[in-house]
Amino acid sequence: MIVRQARNVLRLLEFFAEKKAPATLAEISAAFGWPRSSTYNILTTLSNAGFLYEPRARAGFYPTPRWLQLAQEIAEAEPIPEALTGLIHDLAEGTGETVWISAPSGLHAVMLHVVESRAPVRYAARPGDRVPIHATASGQALLAQMPSRDVDVILRKADYVRYGAGTPMTRAEVLKGLEEGKARGWFASASNYSADLGGVAAPVAMAGRIFAVTVAGPLFRVGDRMEETAKYLIDALAALTPA
Amino acid sequence: MIVRQARNVLRLLEFFAEKKAPATLAEISAAFGWPRSSTYNILTTLSNAGFLYEPRARAGFYPTPRWLQLAQEIAEAEPIPEALTGLIHDLAEGTGETVWISAPSGLHAVMLHVVESRAPVRYAARPGDRVPIHATASGQALLAQMPSRDVDVILRKADYVRYGAGTPMTRAEVLKGLEEGKARGWFASASNYSADLGGVAAPVAMAGRIFAVTVAGPLFRVGDRMEETAKYLIDALAALTPA
């Protein structure tokens, strides 16, 4: 069950990251369609706890730097290997597409670090975005690194829903894609999850953890270049991790 | 009214910043004394929204880098002047005490940037911490920069509670402290709000906003050195802002 008031805190944080300016009670109430009284209550809760303040008198609320301090402490404790974040910047530059690092989280692959393409039409993604692990190139590059017992559990629980033209619809189809991918060293997706999106992903194990690096973009741009892109990705990873 | 489930999200974020490691549902439920079912619901809400994930199978939840990305976007939009944050690092080094920048927020002064003393016995503070604006050195350094009409409104609404031996208990006492401080250029607190804490604060206006810089520590260390510390603080600020 989703806890509405918890979700609302996250929505407020996203709201301010987007707006990048203070907002008044009336503006926030209008933006979300929340009643004035409950908007007042959530703003008071966040202010009392030191997470919001009023930078200018009567000009509205804005998050304090407390979020940043806590988020930095959290990120420093569980860093993604720096070599890997550096690599995806280079890959984004080299391919012109969006590149990300993901890790498994239950039935999902979750994006930990994202460098977006600068192309006007691009795959827009953010850290924390999740995709079904069984249905995507990122996910399959992660599954390929797991013990088969864990893969079995995941594929038994997975929700075989049709997301796009390329979605694998059965456990057997996923296993087939996994075997093919393992054989060639990379995993492909063409409208598997997001319509008109194509990508290639490769597995990478570092610092005792498993990750996937994915390059993805609109199918019209990447569809014909999958092999080429995969080779570029795999060569970059090989240069990074001593064989 | 405090929204409990909103407050719980903030407590979870603080919990992970402190723990710096993944925590299981059972651990979180035990740490907060939350029922297992409601712990499950809040963890699910945060996971579904991309703010938590499970970095290792069955090893528990940890915040994703989404918090950091949003907090960085928020901080970049409303920066504290860099010259000022640099200055408080120097001041903390030079005085050996905790130094912070605060700004007004309604009836409070809120700490925006804090450099803690390295002394084992020190004033421990974090961004987002709030103190009553009328009762503290930080607050009075802020009030001193406001139009008297705004000061009047604040002092009418203020809650004249006894926090410590030095708390000003009436509007007249606050105004007297304000006048004295304005005359000498700095504001003092000795057990005004926190027992056994002393500090000096100075006003500073930058980038169209008003701030206060405060140096504070245990009274046994700073009590006899207030004038000296205030002079050090004011000289540093004078070097920063062209007169």
Task: Describe the overall structure.
The structure is a homodimer of 243-residue chains. The first copy, chain A, is an alpha+beta fold. The first copy, chain A, folds into 2 domains: 4-74, Winged helix-like DNA-binding domain superfamily/Winged helix DNA-binding domain (Arc Repressor Mutant, subunit A, Orthogonal Bundle); 79-240, Beta-Lactamase (2-Layer Sandwich). Helix content of chain A is 47%, strand content 19%. Chain A contains 10 helices and 8 strands. Chain A has helices spanning 4-19, 25-32, 36-48, 66-77, 82-95, 137-143, 148-157, 171-184, 219-222, 226-240; strands at residues 52-53, 62-63, 98-105, 108-115, 130-132, 187-190, 197-206, 209-218. A 6-stranded antiparallel β-sheet of chain A has the order 5-4-3-8-7-6, with helices on both faces. In chain A, strands 1-2 form a two-stranded antiparallel ribbon. In chain A, α2 (25-32) crosses α3 and α5 (82-95) runs antiparallel to α10 (226-240). The N and C termini of chain A lie far apart (45 Å). The interface between A and B is large, with 67 and 66 residues.
